[in-house]
From TrEMBL:
Protein name: NUDIX domain-containing protein
Pfam family, one: NUDIX
Natural source organism: Streptomyces phaeoluteigriseus
Keyword terms, alphabetized: Hydrolase
Phylogenetic placement of the source organism: Bacteria, Bacillati, Actinomycetota, Actinomycetes, Kitasatosporales
PROSITE patterns: NUDIX
Record-linked InterPro entries: NUDIX_hydrolase-like_dom_sf, NUDIX_hydrolase_dom
Amino acid sequence: MAEPVTPTIRTSAKAVVVHDGQVLLQRANWEGQDCYFLPGGGQNPGEPLDQNARREVHEETGLTVTVDKLLWLREYIGANHDHADTEAGTHRIEAIFHCTPEGDPGRLSGHAEDDVQTGLEWVELEKIPGLNLLPHALRQPIAALATGQPSSGYLGDVA
């Protein structure tokens, strides 16, 4: 019998960068599928989550952003989802912030893109529900930003 896997908790920050009714997304090819992700990534020890979001957005997109507010807190506990056999040791906690770009939002030029990243794209908020945005649980809350009535708070353990 295999030993139980002790999950390692990884904290990160993601950014919902909004400008003129659009949100900035990373285009990616992940596990053979074309998809989208929010910019963001792992927190460094001693780094506040809002600074983590600013740093990751700058690295991945070239934009400097203002972190406006915390929108959602999301967990992902791998043992509870589709890839439990390979992700049993995964436990991520993500703080997802609403951000606005400083300067010209059209000047995109990340210098530390993720390996799976294939580009950057401004997408109309209303189109988000029809995209393969991962995790899928974020599509409706992000689309709700178009009406100014997003839910906020704890999203739970969602994929």
